[in-house]
């Protein structure tokens, strides 16, 4: 059970979160750049993961790639809805 909780991905996410909290507390002016770098780092990792799932799907005839795409589309819709709910008019 513990092996499934402490994977390299979850440890990396926790360190990213701790770094985000530290930068938010002490170096707030660099917070936006930290988030931009985070996005730039996660895009190639996500693409590599999708390519690996696509290869696995062709070899083993599974549906992991399709479910990953659906999961990303669902999260994009959730993020768009949250954006419009929290949007404020700063005129």
UniProtKB/TrEMBL annotation:
Transmembrane segments: 5-27, 33-51, 72-90
Keywords: Membrane, Transmembrane, Transmembrane helix
Stated name of the protein: Uncharacterized protein
Organism: Flavobacterium nitrogenifigens
